[in-house]
Amino acid sequence: MTITLTPGAVSLAALEQLYRDQPTFVLDDTAYTAVRASASILAARIGEGEPIYGVNTGFGKLASVRIEDDRLADLQRNLVRSHAAGFGPPLPETIVRLIMALKCISLGRGASGVRPEVIDQLQAMAAAGVIPVIPEKGSVGASGDLAPLAHMAAAMMGEGDAFYQSERMAAGEALQAAGLTPIELQAKEGLALLNGTQASTALALVGLFEAWHLAKASLCTAALSIDAAMGSSAPFHPDIHDLRGHRGQIESAARLRSLLGGSEIRESHKEGDERVQDPYCLRCAPQVIGACLDQLRHAAKTLEIEANAATDNPLVLSDGAIVSGGNFHAEPVALVADLIAIAISEIGAIAQRRVALLVDPSLSFGLPAFLAPDPGLKSGLMIAEVTSAALMSENKALANPRSVDSTPTSANQEDHVSMACHAARRLLEMNRNLAGILGVEAMAAAQGIELRAPLKTSDCLQDVIATIRQHSPALTEDRIVSDDLEKLANLVSNQTCLAEAACDVAPMNL
Predict the structure, then answer these.
(1) Distance between CA atoms of 151 and 133, rounded to whole angstroms?
(2) Which CATH number applies to 203-269+278-310+330-405+418-502?
(3) CATH architecture of 2-196
(4) Are 175 and 124 in contact (CB under 8 A)?
(5) Which of 21, 356, 389, 471 has a CA between 20 and 30 Å from the CA of residue 147?
(6) At which residues is the cross-link 5-imidazolinone (Ala-Gly) found (predicted)?
(7) Maximum distance among all alpha carbons in the chain?
(8) pLDDT digit string (tens) for 199-236?
(9) What is the b/e burial string over 349-362, where b = at least 16 CB atoms within 10 angstroms of the residue's CB?
(10) Active site positions, annotated
């Protein structure tokens, strides 16, 4: 499968396809007209002897140092080598492929002054399975993701390491094995590859895609918990949510009504229920999950724009001017990464309170303590709930904003930075923690509903429980449940499982 990318117009759906399906990607042929034009303008300007930042000058604090024309290729090679200073384990290959695609999109806007061969090299490497080894740490999200992207550029030159067909080796060996030749970067091309927000944006996009999926899955686990706790469906009346008007809230309430529709458990306590109101974790699920959906949609729009942006420096403008600016500053990415982190934390926080409710006999309306078949002799899900609390607490700490933590770098030339890269990277861990919380909720809520027998939940939720039971049997005796929790975390992370039950929620980019 090959996907054709039109720079400036690549949709969020296409970006998710690039990540999830790992297709071969190529730029639309029409993009090369602007690419060739900007490269020609740059070459002409160099020939005129005009000083251009990063092309025939040094970088950062060394911008006043003029470089002779016969050393311009050396300048770019030295730039890549010196900036490949990342630290830590490598980013997953799936994310690096997305970084490579985003860089092609950015260069394809025709404002970077690079030759088409640079784009072709990235496309050919991705198609052949030559994926640069990029250490996960080292970017502060200003002047671009310099260290991560330098490791990508180094592999293009045959230096550093790369994965070839998922085996790590020297990049030169990987290119040779794939029948590819290292590229010799010309004037500005190293700088164009290193400047840009593609590492931060790719990480934020992956965090967004997983958070959106888990938010939808949480509507399903919430519905299970509401029925297990004999919660009221009255708070999901459409008029309540229409009167407030928030789209995500309206959609969430509608989906909960649909999931719970036809439940015998719900019908059994419509009359004579002494509880006037349910706790917030049940009653306010549409308000909380819906608000998170709305914020994820906002983040999606920002990241879609950023994925299509020209973010290196200097840029070759439409009038032929070559101008230094600051599009490499990743503040938009950092801010929405913080927003995604908060949403992930909140979805997990309210889910964890539902788990706590289900195991507490003073709140669960007749369920045994810790959902154990013989409380006291057996502890049931006592510590599974504690695990969910631990994951929730970790996510709360990880949700603290990164975008406010600027620190000057590069001899104070880069005196305000975004911290976008690690703002986005922590989303990977947060989503895994959230999947763990929702896995615990799925286990607890399924157990609670089955303890309501002979009453049955809705047909839809019975199907969900049947899926849960394929991965985690009902708890009839105490057993080690860590394997269950891993399997259920994977289940809620699966694109075709629990989130599919919440598929009435509209896509995030609409």
Answers:
(1) 7
(2) 1.20.200.10
(3) Orthogonal Bundle (1.10)
(4) no
(5) 21
(6) 142-144
(7) 88
(8) 999 999 999 999 999 999 999 999 999 999 999 999 99
(9) bbbbbbbbbbbeee
(10) 53
